[in-house]
Amino acid sequence: MAEEAVTTLDAELSRFVRAEEGLALLEVFLEVAGPRVGSAVLDPVGMRLPDELTADRALVQGLIEGIEQEPRPKRRLLQVTERAYDLSDEQARWDYVRLAYCSNLATVWSVGHRTTYFEVADRSSATYWLPDSLKAQYFEALSTRGWAIPADWLTAVAKQPKPWWKRGGR
């Protein structure tokens, strides 16, 4: 069975007039993608508020400080630290949306971890990878809610993913 074409969309906070717009677009995405999402995780170590964030700074800083106060297991070689969020819970979804851009790595996976839908890396780059059907639902939801879809997102071309045996270093 052929995989659905996927569109790559850049979503760094710096590309939006207000960072909160980028957060709102992520929030709408998580609502729309809800049934397809298997997990949403982030790295809770070394979180930092992005300079672009203007609203809710104190609230988000409080979330970060709360995470920093939690006991952590002793680090072991190659131990991966991640914090999972239940996106069906409204408060957890709100927290995740605001903390994703504060993290060194935040990822939203499909069910079965076959597809990455959204990722923030090094607090600076953020990307959506949307199969055509999910992209159509997402854009419809953004329009319905009155959010402007970035022009380059509207013109982004979907590409057919490489077969699994061709992915990797080539």
Description:
The protein is 34% helix and 19% strand. Helix 1 packs across helix 3 (90-100) and helix 1 crosses helix 4. It has a six-stranded antiparallel sheet. With 170 residues, the chain is of the alpha+beta class.
Order of helices and strands: EHEHEHEEEHH
Biggest β-sheet: strands ordered side by side in the sheet? 1-6-5-4-2-3
Q: What's the mean pLDDT score?
A: 88
- State the helix count: 5
Instruction: Please compute the radius of gyration using only Cα atoms.
Output: 16 Å
Q: What structural class should be given to the helix and strand makeup?
A: alpha+beta
Q: Report the count of strand segments.
A: 6
Distance between the termini: 23 Å
**Which strand-content bin applies to the residues?**
15-25%
**Helical proportion, percent range:** 25-40%
- Which of globular, elongated, flat, extended, rod-shaped describes the shape? globular
Profile the largest sheet.
Answer: 6 strands, antiparallel
**Residue windows where pLDDT falls under 50 for at least 5 positions:** none
Summed up:
34% of the residues lie in helices and 19% in strands. By secondary structure, the chain is an alpha+beta fold.
List keywords for this structure.
170 residues, alpha+beta, six-stranded antiparallel beta sheet, 5 helices, 6 strands
Present the secondary structure layout.
Elements: E1 6-10, H1 19-33, E2 37-42, H2 57-69, E3 83-85, H3 90-100, E4 105-110, E5 116-121, E6 125-131, H4 132-144, H5 151-155
Antiparallel strand pairs: 1-6, 2-3, 2-4, 4-5, 5-6
Helix pairs in contact: 1-3, 1-4
